[in-house]
Design a protein that fits this description.
The complex is a heterodimer of chains A (about 425) and B (about 350). By secondary structure, chain A is an all-alpha fold. In chain A, about 55% of the residues lie in helices and about 0% in strands. Chain A has 22 helices and no strands. The N terminus of chain A is likely disordered. Chain B has a domain of about 240 residues: Up-down Bundle (Cytochrome Bc1 Complex, Chain C), CATH 1.20.810.10. Chain B has 15 helices and 4 strands. Chain B is mostly helical and about 350 residues long. In chain B, strand 3 and strand 4 form a beta hairpin. In chain B, strands 1-2 form a two-stranded antiparallel sheet. Chain B has a two-stranded antiparallel ribbon with strand order 3-4. Classes of the chains: A mainly alpha (about 425), B mainly alpha (about 350). At the A-B interface, helix 22 of A face helix 4 and helix 11 of B.
Chain lengths: ~425, ~350
């Protein structure tokens, strides 16, 4: 939904005429004039149509519905004038696609338009259900609205990134999905996830909404093999390493859900180091026993990993002491920053599930942390040397002063 | 050995020097303590020269290398940190000692005839010391120095008439760049030392020529004060003070090593709380506290003109004060001196306490 879907229905009008009739733009629009005066249900389409992207771009009612908006009479809706009424739910996507799937037509309004693909839509669960005659399934208007469609970049649009989870949850909730096997707790889980909080609480538009993982017009639940690809769209290095790992294939064979096996999906939380290993909070124990090869590997790697973190913390603490004592810690801090960067690399390398690679990454970071700690210790030793030197020099200075005072007294004594 | 001494005596005039040294003495009275501050300033200047030459062995004067060379000196060179810290601390102590020397000279009215030119040369030396401080402050090319120099040169730029020229002269352009650093380095290690050597030589010559001044209160006493031989009696006392200063420098350098800070980056916003070196503090605080407009003129301009005028008056006081150092005119100038000391002290402290009157 991060494309020009907000103008999905744009120019469906040209289905009949080929060129949209600029009736609204011209000023005379008998459709609006009459419907505005009718009962609420019939008047509703006129309420927000003025700000609809189609109206803004000069497209009127006849663009979709046909007829003659310049005719002030009921004859405006004469089928001979192309009037085709309202589409059935199963027809909506086809209506919209008449314009939105036509690249040449869409280019009139945007040199680089999003071109809707009916073929892609047909791959979605939504479209398949509609084809099967299920009318309670989402089609274009359920997400984008109707007669008041806003551009997808408009924060009021239901397909604006921060609105997408709520838009999806209009259908994906327990009440609407009653009697179906589709899970309905996704929204509740998502809003408390690291992604949900980033998007909905912090307004971070780079955080994924539903469509970023599931697709939009071709929305499907990602299958087992696809999950690492879906996650890897944002978490590139992790996804790449995991896809190449033996664990990825093993999980696939077992029918488990790749990344989601350890991290979860809709309720995914910020990963912590506690997830590593068989201990409390560790996710490895979901599949591995302490006696299994994987379990034995964690018995070696987990202490190494936590040992590295302790090394980094110790180096940081020693450098802080040196800082407080006024020593120049920049060189040590530089090494520590590199060690920290390498620690991030260690966390990424966990996705290889390769003991040698992980161990190498830990060693690389550990060497830097050790050097940083050595720098800090050298600084502290230097500081102690300075103290001793200061004390020594002050003693020498005091002795010299005493000698001078003695000399002054000696030459100024009456005997002299 | 004896023949070498004789050889040198004949060629260097050692007898005249010896005669001069034996002849030189210092009056002893209740204000004699203040006589030591000139020697103290000179000693600290010597420390500056020695440590400055050592720093020159490693310092590289370009925007790309200055900061790194000072960092290298402080972290990789044996006792480099000590040399730099002593140079920085000694600079501050030297200006402090020079100020004490100046104010004590003022209050003891040592500038009276025939010592007017000694006073003038001393004032020029104080100005040169502050110029040393201002130019040296930028040389490590760190963030604080960069923006303090910017503020300082901006103030110079506000001087009516020649301000813009002076600003461009100091910066080597409209902005502070690597060119400014090179220029300040040139001032700091070539121009200022050359001029200072000349003026200092003249100042010392005049002190030697006229001898130590006796304050009017002592001068009016029933008997002239007793005198102390300069060598060895006064010189030994001087050396006690110099050793104490050396100890203080070692203490400051070891306990409060001079920070290097972070490298200057012209593209980041100025850090909060930029302050000049303390000896410019009273002027900075004065300008900061003035309203934006005074009598239709810009407050900063009025401040600069006022400080400039006060400085000129301070400079020519020997020609305005009573030559005997007594009477109502002398009292007036003594009160002016006390007010000046209070003003400078209070306004300097206010910079660091962030206060307003």
């Amino acid at each position: 939904m991060k494309f020009a879907a907000g103008i999905l229905l744009l120019l469906a009008a040209s289905t009949l005429a080929g060129t949209p009739a600029p009736a609204a733009a011209a000023g005379g629009n008998s459709c609006i004039d009459c419907h505005r005066e009718l009962e609420p249900r019939m008047a509703a389409p006129t309420e927000h149509f003025a700000e609809d992207i189609h109206a803004v771009r000069g497209l009127g009612c006849v663009g979709c519905h046909g007829g003659d908006a310049s005719d002030p009479d009921i004859t405006a809706m004469d089928p001979d004038k192309g009037f085709r009424g309202a589409p059935k739910r199963s027809e909506i996507a086809e209506w919209c696609a008449k314009c939105h799937a036509d690249a040449a037509f869409m280019k009139r309004y945007n040199p680089q338009p999003y071109v809707f693909s009916m073929a892609e839509f047909r791959t979605s669960v939504h479209c398949k259900k509609i084809s099967e005659g299920d009318t309670k399934v989402a089609t274009c208007t359920n997400c984008h609205g109707v007669h008041g469609i806003l551009p997808h970049k408009d924060p009021r649009s239901p397909v604006y990134p921060t609105n997408v989870p709520a838009t999806c949850s209009k259908c994906h909730n327990s009440q609407y999905m009653k009697g179906r096997t589709v899970p309905t707790n996704q929204y509740a889980l998502y809003v408390n996830s690291v992604h949900g909080k980033a998007l909905l609480e912090k307004g971070d538009l780079s955080a994924p909404a539903c469509n970023d993982c599931h697709g939009n017009h071709g929305a499907v639940p990602p299958n087992t093999r696809d999950i690492s690809v879906v996650c890897g769209n944002c978490h590139g290095r992790e996804g790449e390493l995991f896809a190449k790992s033996g664990v990825s294939h093993a999980l696939e064979l077992e029918g488990k859900r790749g990344c989601a096996t350890c991290h979860g999906n809709h309720d995914i939380q910020r990963p912590t180091d506690a997830m590593i290993g068989l201990g409390p909070g560790g996710v490895c124990g979901q599949c591995h026993t302490p006696e299994s090869p994987g379990g034995r590997a964690t018995a070696v790697l987990v202490p190494q990993f936590h040992g590295l973190k302790i090394e980094i913390a110790e180096a940081d603490s020693l450098l802080a002491v040196a800082d407080r004592l006024g020593m120049d810690t920049e060189a040590g801090r530089g090494l520590l920053r590199e060690a920290d960067d390498q620690l991030v690399n260690v966390r990424v390398s966990l996705h290889t599930f390769d003991r040698a690679q992980i161990s190498d990454a830990i060693t690389a970071s550990s060497e830097l942390a050790t050097k940083s700690m050595a720098q800090a210790r050298a600084l502290l030793a230097d500081w102690r040397t300075r103290r001793v030197g200061l004390g020594g020099s002050l003693v020498v200075i005091l002795i010299l002063i005493a000698l001078l005072v003695y000399q002054i007294r000696r030459i100024e004594s009456p005997r002299a | 050995m004896g023949s070498v001494r004789e050889w040198l005596r004949d060629r260097l005039g050692l007898d005249e020097i010896q005669h001069l040294v034996e002849k030189k003495d210092v009056p002893v009275h209740r204000h004699s303590f203040w006589y030591y501050w000139g020697g103290m300033t000179l000693f600290l200047f010597g420390v500056q020269v020695v440590t400055g030459i050592l720093l020159l062995l490693y310092y590289r004067a370009s925007a790309d290398e200055a900061y790194e060379s000072v960092r290298f000196l402080m972290t990789q060179v044996s006792f480099g940190w000590l040399i730099r810290s002593i140079h920085s601390w000694s600079a501050n102590l030297m200006i402090g000692a020079a100020m004490i020397h100046m104010f004590s000279t003022f209050l003891m009215k040592s500038y009276r005839t025939p010592r007017e030119v000694t006073w003038l040369s001393g004032m020029v030396l104080l100005g040169l010391s502050m110029a040393f401080g201002f130019s040296g402050y930028l040389l490590p090319w760190n963030q604080l120095a960069f923006f303090a120099t910017k503020v300082g040169t901006d103030i110079v730029g506000a001087v009516p008439g020649v301000g813009h020229f002076l600003l461009r002269f100091l910066r080597g352009g409209d902005q502070i760049t690597g060119g400014t650093l090179t220029r300040f380095f040139g001032f700091h290690v070539a121009i200022l030392p050359a001029v200072t050597t000349l003026i200092l030589g003249m100042h010392l010559y005049l002190v030697q020529r006229h001898g130590m001044s006796v304050p009017p209160s002592v001068e009016q006493g029933p008997t002239p004060p007793p005198r102390m031989k300069f060598v060895p009696n006064f010189l030994l006392r001087d050396m006690v003070g110099w050793l104490a200063a050396l100890g203080l420098l070692a203490l400051l350098a070891a306990l409060f090593p001079w920070e290097l800070g972070i490298k200057a980056d012209p593209y980041v916003p100025a850090p909060a709380g930029i302050k000049p070196e303390w000896y410019f503090g009273w002027m900075f605080q004065t300008l900061r506290m003035l309203p934006s407009h005074i009598l239709g003129l810009e407050g900063e301009l009025v401040g600069i003109l006022g400080i400039g005028l006060a400085g000129m008056v301070w400079l020519v006081v020997p020609f305005l004060d009573d030559v005997r150092g007594i009477g109502p005119r002398a009292r007036f100038w003594r009160i002016v001196g006390v007010i000046a000391i209070l003003y400078v002290t209070v306004f300097t402290l206010m910079v660091y306490r962030g206060g307003t009157p």
